[in-house]
Amino acid sequence: QTELLDLSTVDVILISNYHCMMALPYITEYTGFTGTVYATEPTVQIGRLLMEELVNSIERVPKAQSASMWKNKEVQRLLPAPLKDAVEVSMWRKCYTMPEVNAALSKIQLVGYSQKIELFGAVQVTPLSSGYALGSSNWIIQSHYEKVSYVSGSSLLTTHPQPMDQASLKNSDVLILTGLTQIPTANPDGMVGEFCSNLAMTVRNGGNVLVPCYPSGVIYDLLECLYQYIDSAGLSNVPFYFISPVANSSLEFSQIFAEWLCHNKQTKVYLPEPPFPHAELIQTNKLKHYPSIHGDFSNDFKQPCVVFTGHPSLRFGDVVHFMELWGKSGLNTVIFTEPDFSYLDALAPYQPLAMKCVYCPIDTRLNFIQVSKLLKEVQPLHVVCPEQYTQPPPTQSHRTDLMIDCQPPPMSYRRAEVLTLPYKRRYEKIEIMPELADSLVPLEIKPGISLATVSAVLHTKDNKHVLQLPPKPPQPPTSKKRKRVSDDVPECKPLKPLLSGSIPVDQFVQTLEKHGFSDVKVEDTAKGHIVLLQEAETLIQIEEDSTHIICDNDEPLRVKLRDLVLKFLQKF
Amino acid sequence: MPEIKVTPLGAGQDVGRSCILVSIAGKNVMLDCGMHMGYNDDRRFPDFSYITQNGRLTDFLDCVIISHFHLDHCGALPYFSEMVGYDGPIYMTHPTKAICPILLEDYRKITVDKKGETNFFTSQMIKDCMKKVVAVHLHQTVQVDEELEIKAYYAGHVLGAAMFQIKVGCESVVYTGDYNMTPDRHLGAAWIDKCRPDLLISESTYATTIRDSKRCRERDFLKKVHETVERGGKVLIPVFALGRAQELCILLETFWERMNLKAPIYFSTGLTEKANHYYKLFITWTNQKIRKTFVQRNMFEFKHIKAFDRAFADNPGPMVVFATPGMLHAGQSLQIFRKWAGNEKNMVIMPGYCVQGTVGHKILSGQRKLEMEGRQILEVKMQVEYMSFSAHADAKGIMQLIRQAEPRNVLLVHGEAKKMEFLKQKIEQEFHVSCYMPANGETTTIFTNPSIPVDISLGLLKRETAIGLLPDVKKPKLMHGTLIMKDNSFRLVSPEQALKELGLAEHQLRFTCRVHIQDPRKEHETVLRVYNHLKG
After folding, report:
1. Which stretches make up the Beta-Casp domain (chain B) (predicted)?
2. Does residue A62 or residue B457 have the better pLDDT?
3. I need a surface site. Which of A68, B67, B100, B228 has the fewest CB within 10 A?
């Protein structure tokens, strides 16, 4: 949805994890976007794999012609149920191609966790480990005085990635919270157990198991669980197949990102051993990977077996073949682990189905209990989140525990809505050059508080401000040729300082007398005093906060009086 | 005046036992903690008693940084942390943290088990020492404490080698460790951004050398190996297990494949297989090409190179052997060298720098009769070749790095005094920055002149910049403000705001004058004229 903002005015895109970059080519290749994209290395590499798989699966089934007439609102209205209700169909786009993916990825700047990246000198952004996936990050966007945290897709569970960095989120003025778990009621640990036992049961009964999944992410954890489980469950002879155009790359890449893994896996690399046990599964031929069901796979294929393949929506990819192959037998099982798609919708076109269906969504992202714990821990001033997190899910409206609960209540935003953050910027950093600092004369006004008047030249470069000593006034130009010199001299608008304080009349009169005014006469008024200099025909009205000098046509006298008055006042 | 103090405890006008103390804005940081290969007595470790006479090192040092895993940069670490006693943080990159303990253990074995020394650190001490290590990512900003932060940059010297920026407030120091500015067959080139540190501490191993192109050297190397093998000779290449070894292996592997050669290549046992494994797992630290192709073909899985067994040394016929350590001062490489030295058909190729006092250094300086242990004299008849493959920046590279980082001062370590002197002059001439080269134990003080950060009220700043945007943007404008200093905080605000904040009332000063004007015109016309005049 792009009409809300002009993407060519966007300077920077921050990417949280590889699932959040699937639309990147649409932005970088079609919108006139010229800014920079920041992401971590694993995010880019695995994101590339996901896109590659997507493009590959789509291009494998070329369509001779594509219909678009139905997208017309009038026509769409007449179509049967799911199509009729589809929203924003006019926005639906064709899938990008590999060259576009490569072009998009080439625009990404790689960053590391806790790396401080200066943007235009005005703000600093920092990615932090979010604990959800390899290289997944939360982002801190801060200036000298304001700190905004963007928390998206985070996990407090210990799986393979580096644990979430919570400490750095502290002292945020605003915390934007999104990407919470899709299935707040399911416990990932329990789901993994269920996954294993269902898998074992099916295989023992001679059936096959199909696991629709992404080529990276939870699959690493599943393989690790199975690695520990298969021997005890007596499954050591059952082949595991991982079929994806990027299966090999995904398994290889997972082994080289030691620095992005949890502590246990890092220590393994120090030994040196591969961090994930799927290396051993491959070595012992228990796990085999193939780019597609064609070629080698058809020779090696043995049943019963377990197949991991995509796409989890069951709409494209090799998973479609297996659904059709195995769907008719009650012995087989399909196990859904990815939480992003409703399994009922996914299965709908395949009905009627004899195959068993098990739903074990494994979503390690934050649930609401963890959110409230996290918010208590990091204490942001304001929380901003999507509207749906501020009320219980529509299907379980009694579950008031399934919403974000914090003080002050979170501010919510809706799709295509602009939210103004209740935060006002008041200060910014500026640097005073040492020479200028030397020349300042501080004046103690109150105990512990000093003031100094600063007159300096302000230089602003790359949003950094520096105050420098004003250059010395140049010698008056001797000839006309040298007139250009004065270009470097700042325009000096005369400094008109503010005055403060009050004038003690008695002392003022004494001073006047000292300076040769012999006939000073003081009159009291309602608000103050009037000092009369009779000979000079001059009148000075002194009040608490003002002084009025009335003197006629005698400039030297006026200047003299002014200087005497100023002696009693503080200048700013 | 704020100052930065630097004292080398090792590697001051010398190569070996790198150890440099830096004091910056009240923080004390120790850079590297190495041993000296040329000595076997007290001089092999830096003199840590210099840091503090009485009192614990932990209280005095804020952190220790290790640039890479070579022993002349980390060899004294267990001695320092466990025997002298230091419990603070030690920072290094992940590959360094992985490989360092293995080299230390190897070093300990050679010293204690083979040479029978006592009073040396134990395996347990190495383990305890490594527990104090905090691993850092490239470019990650590590907050050591509230004020002190460090950041690692890629150095390209060996796997996991890093340069470190140490920053307190707006003062900063960059320590390069050992680095290499030209990418080689397995690593990329060192890189740093224009971070304008107050001080750049650079190595200067090849301060006076400008090396010919890498390609020529590689061709030379291959030619020499090939010739020797053709005439049935044996080639010994003493290397350190990690680093050059892998680069040369890749080189020979591809050459063997292309030329279809049959002579065996061996890699001395133990460490090396493991070492290759480290390269496979830390492939993100190697160069672009290897990283891109690793899924199809991992460059560190060698087909032609096999593990070496001690018995192979006596096999007849040609062979190429990589053996550790690289300076021929102990271990397997020295054993093989003694066996093969007598035959003029054989060849030893020294691919890296050799520290004074080692056998490697002796044969390179032309010595042909060596006194070995037990007063035995060894006559060297085999050909001795030197090839600079060590991944240090040459003079050109050092200048290039200085240009990249734009430091205000440069300090040279890890090099020979004479060569440093030459480079120092060159740096001062070309960049007009001061360049220092302290000897061990000598303190260099550098004065910095930091600007003072204050908070400016956004209102004032916006008002000023808005004026600045008027027609002539380039022309500097004078701005006025009031600086409020209150318990260590500095705020620059407009004079009006300052008065308001301090609860002071403004005092108005007015003047009134009577002016007599003689004008023949009508009264209101006169008023109008005066008004127009004032308005103009």
Report:
1. 245-363
2. B457
3. A68
Of A258, A451, A548, Cβ closest to residue B498 = A451
State the fold for domain A1-61+72-111.
Answer: Metallo-beta-lactamase; Chain A (3.60.15)
Which of A29-38, A492-501, B117-126 is least confident? A492-501
d(CA A9, CA A32) in angstroms, rounded, equals 9
Active-site residue set of B:
203
Residue pair A215/A310 in contact (Cβ under 8 Å)? The answer is yes
Locate tokens 């786009």: which residue?
A93
Q: Give the three-class secondary structure for B375.
A: helix
Check if the beta carbon of residue B63 is closer than 8 Å to that of residue B175.
no
The CATH classification number of A188-359 equals 3.40.50.10890
Q: Identify the CATH assignment for B3-210+391-439 out of 3.60.15.10, 3.40.50.970, 1.10.760.10, 3.40.50.1220.
A: 3.60.15.10
Q: What is the mean pLDDT of residues A366-381?
A: 91
Question: What is the CATH code of the structural domain delimited by A499-571?
Answer: 3.30.310
Instruction: State both tokens at B23.
Output: 């004091």
The set of residues, in sequence order, having a beta carbon less than 8 Å from that of A564 and lying 6+ positions away, is A508, A511, A512, A515
* CB-CB under 8 Å, A258 with B449: no
Question: Which phi and psi angles does A419 have, rounded to 5°?
Answer: -115, 130
Nearest residue, CB atoms, B512 vs list A432, A453, A550: A550
Tell me, what's the pLDDT at B19?
94
Long-range contacts of B485-489 (CB under 8 A, 24+ apart): B485/A442, B485/A449, B485/A450, B485/A451, B485/A452, B486/A448, B486/A449, B486/A450, B487/A448, B489/B455
pLDDT band at A240 (very low <50, low <70, confident <90, very high): very high
Residues of chain A with CATH 3.30.310: 499-571
Helix (H) or strand (E) holding B96: helix B94-108
* Residue (of B317, B531, B414, B495) closest to B14 by Cα position: B414
With beta carbons less than 8 A apart as the criterion, state whether A108 and A20 touch: no
Rounded Cα gap, residues B391 and B183, in angstroms: 9
Peptide bond into A311 cis (omega under 30): yes
Confidence at residue B532, expressed as pLDDT on a 0 to 100 scale: 82
**Cα angle, residue B266 at apex, residues B261 and B272 outer, rounded to 5°:** 135
- Alpha-carbon distance of A495 to A500, in angstroms, equals 16
Q: Residue A431: its chain B contacts at CB < 8 A?
A: 451-454
Q: Tell me the per-residue pLDDT of A496-524, one tens digit each, with 9 for 90 and over.
A: 667 777 778 888 888 888 887 777 788 88
Pair A465, B460: CB distance under 8 Å: no
**Cβ partners under 8 Å of residue B49, min gap 6:** none
What CA–CA distances, in Å, run from A482 to A448, A475, A476?
Answer: 48, 10, 9
Asked if residue B413 lies in contact with residue B176, where contact means CB atoms within 8 angstroms, the answer is no
Range in A19-23, A397-401, A468-472, B361-365 the model is least confident about: A468-472
Q: Does the domain made of B214-386 have the CATH classification 3.40.50.10890?
A: yes
Q: pLDDT digits over A45-83, tens only?
A: 999 999 999 999 888 877 766 667 666 777 777 777 666
Contact B410, B200 (CB under 8 A): yes
Give the per-residue pLDDT at B326: 79
Q: What's the whole-model pTM score? A: 0.84
* Alpha carbon distance A241, A281 (integer Å): 11
Q: What is the DSSP letter of A87?
A: S
Measured in whole angstroms, the distance separating CA B521 from the mean position of its chain's CA atoms is 87
Interchain pair A547, B510: CB under 8 A: yes
pLDDT exceeds cutoff 90 at A235 = no
Domain extents in chain B: 3-210+391-439, 214-386, 452-535
- For residue A493, list chain B residues with Cβ-Cβ distance below 8 A: 478
